Amino acid sequence: MTTTAMPRGAAALPAVRRRRLDPLLFAVLALAGVLTLWGLSRSGYSNEYYAAAARAGSESWTAWFFGSLDPGSFITVDKPPLSLWLMGLSARALGFSSFSILLPQALCTIAAVALLFATVKRLFRRPAALLAAAFLALTPVTVAIGRVNNPDALLVLLMVGAAYLLVRALESGRTKHLLWCGALVGLAFMTKMLQGWMLLPALSAAYALAGPPRLAVRLRQLLAAGAVTVAVSAAWPLAVTLWPGDKPFIGGSEDGGVWNLILGYNGLGRILGEGGGMGGGGGMFGGTPGLWRMLDEQVGGQVAWLLPLALVSLGAGLWLTRGEPRTGLRRAGWVLFGAWALVLGLVFSFAQGIFHPYYVSALAPAIAALSGAGLVALWGWATDSWAGVAALAAALLATAYVAVALLARTPEFAPWLSTAIPVAAAVGAFGVVARRVPGLLGRRALAVAAVAGVLAMTAGPAAYSVATAGRALNGNDVSAGPAGASPGGGGFGGDSAVDGELIAYLRANQGSAKYLVAATGSQATAGIIIATGEPVVTIGGFNGGDPAPTVDELAELVETGQLKYVLLGGQGGGPGGGASEISAWVQEHGTAVEDAGTTAGTLYRVGA
After folding, report:
1. What is the pTM of this model?
2. Across the beta sheet with 602-605, what order do the strands follow?
3. How would residue 16 be classed by pLDDT, with cut points 50, 70 and 90?
4. N or C: fewer beta carbons within 10 Å in the chain?
């Protein structure tokens, strides 16, 4: 008897086939890619504050490490530097341009969509995962943060990555997965400080409930993961604190220290409206704090489209899995994403400090996961129970109602949707009822009704996402949707006109001075840094309110020959009292330059 030799590697072929690219997942990722990458450079430098820091990081490794606003590392931006590190490296590799600094955020957004698919698939299987990934890709604020140079796209990716590793820990019970989860939360802290830690309650609750080991072991594992989170979070602040030589003033702080920034402007200041620079005034951007903020005019169009579906899904999911074992993955998934949505939703709703609508991008993955898993669970429940029919129909109709209400705020944008969505929702709801009644509708008609229901829930956010991809975005207070969709927008950070004649004069007369010029606030200096890649003193940091430099420090820069020119007036007036004192000192000790040819303010020569 002869045997036919098996071709080398044939035994591995089934596994290879199982891992081939899912065509529907590829379609979802292609959709996310088009929405984030199409015409990416139309926003210019988007947020010049971060663009200037990216230019600085591409010119100086010291500026790159600190996240400094200029290559001379006089002052840093008011965020930790992880997202700036990506932009700086991209600019070094591809050359500094609009595309090179916006590309990392777009790639982070596409990766977050893929990683959410992988996470939800492990908990609720492929159909729910595909829906969740598609919902995230079509969330308007997700598209918006993927097209600007703010740190939020990286934050979302790291949060989804932490959730994925938590699910791996739920499957295996192994400490290593929890430790890596804690490390990603630490990196999220390195991206937006305490906002990155907001996921910790959800991660901890899910593992404490459903982790495979016994309770004492689970608690020890969580403590170890928490220690890793703290260690990774503290690595950069400790390095800055212990830096042996000269270091920049930490922007956004009251004393130049990184710990003050963490606890003040980027900590309690965001929640309570206290401490650190611009710590108050949250209503200026994100509407009035309160229970309904997630649906208000500033925030609703960014993320609220699927909120009714997500909330109904959370309740239904917890009810349907009430009898599962303690370690059941599905119930753990509802706890994970439910706690994520509720904790962040409540914090964002009642935050008294600075609150930009685009912050809710961190809420989008949880809403997408709950909605994707919930739609599948509700559809199955509706097959077996009239209670499921009622829950699914209510979720569908409520979601459609919210979509019509949000679209009503931009009545000139796609007005036909306000008619099409209710019609599609009615068809979908009828299909839900008909599925429970044998013979009322054929399989093809039921399929049409199901598609109509999904379209009723996704047409609104999809239209807003396409509109977002089709226009330039101001990264400082980015707002998704058609122009004018969020009335609370504006503020610092958009592309500003750079005075070429002023720059030419400064370069021709800089001599041996380290700094090209000093001016108040990043609106006055960011464009100069972007255009020249030269060190510039930004008096008062972002908006002119930081206590740096003092009058004495500015005088020392002049006396030591590091600074010859100061620009007063123009865009960077700033609210800080220190800036006013510096203005008085400059006018007393400097000489106005008549032939600088600038319209951006008055240029003073203060050095020899």
Report:
1. 0.91
2. 537-539, 518-520, 565-568, 602-605, 591-592
3. very low
4. N
